[in-house]
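anyone seen this seq b4? input:
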Amino acid sequence: MMLLSILHKLKSTDDMKVTAASEKQSTNFTSSRTSPNKDALNQKLAETQNTPKGTAGTFTSKAIDIPKGYTSYKIRISSADNLHLGMGYQVPWDHYALPITGLGFTVTQDTRKVAKDLLTKVYTKLTEQKAEDTKWSTPETKAIYDAKLQAIQEALTSDASTTDNYKTVAIDAVAQRKNLNEEVQIKKKANDAVTAKLTEKEQSIEDNGHLSPTEKARAKKQAREEASKANRAITGADSQTAVTTAQTTGEADIQKVNPVGKEKAKKAIQDELAKKLQAINDNDKLSQAEKDTAKADATAKAQAQTEAIDKQPANADTADKANEAQTAVTTAQTTGEADIQKVNPVGKEKAKKAIQDELAKKLQAINDNDKLSQAEKDTAKADATAKSSSTNRELLISNLLMQIQQIKLMRLKQRSQQLKLQEKPTFRR
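predicted toks r here
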């Protein structure tokens, strides 16, 4: 009996593509017609010489267009020509009507339309919420996301795109979307920038030799308050624009902390005044009236320059303005010290009184000298009086020379201080 493959008679049509079955050998064997035994026949067919040696036929159906909304479907295969299936009910052995060989049926689906439709919806949704999604994205991250969306658009407009293409660009875009929220990183970067500006300002304050410890502490506290205010604004910001504004404002406010040192300058004037007052008190050549006059003069000069220092601001908005104010303070300090040093009273009243006392004693002695005639007394008195006047003039000249020498020494000291001012520190910008 010849075994026929079940597909050797089928032809390709518009509905399917057929690869016909083939058989390389014809085999037959005999059996009793009167009492055929099914098991015996099947055992005979299973013998090596009776098994098929050809290749099975295959067919591929036309593409099946699944309507929108379908989630499942069934495939049914039926015979179009039962007469050529190679089987008959008159034979007792096992045979099969379904064309199943090898691993069985495989169903290959062309899901491009479904995938494209799904990708279109994904793209529409992503572009609609792009503004909100990228609200906390850096420009670099946003550029990467834009490239992913562009890849989707290109896949949708390309006729060569496959389901795998659609799937790949969709997965890439959705994965990148998960990286868009960089709020924590953006705010940290802004806060770090404010902290760096604060550190720089605190160091500048610490290095400013014109400031007293109290002034340094006060300025640092002000800078920290500005930084803290900026940090709070950054943390509470609801957009990148708000973060940038808070950072910029904070840095600018910190930069506006430019303290002007006044306490050390005022103390220098007071120290110079204290030395001068002590020197005046210790000058036993001065009368009390001369001491009081000299003290009042020195105190007035100190007060004038102290008031000039007080007129300068304690803080300036810019480093240039702070330098300008600090220069004015230093000028007032050196002027005050120099003016105080110029107060060098010359004691005259006690000397003049001593001369007058001596003259009075001399005149009294002349008057009391009864050995002298009146004319001799008058002559002696006139001579003593003239000598007294001469002594006063000599004393006056001596005091004038002393004052000139003191002025020269004072000018040398002023010149030395001016040279030191040229080396003074300036504020950092």
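The longest strand covers residues 16-19. Residues 145 and 175 are 10 Å apart (CA to CA). kinda curious what u guys think
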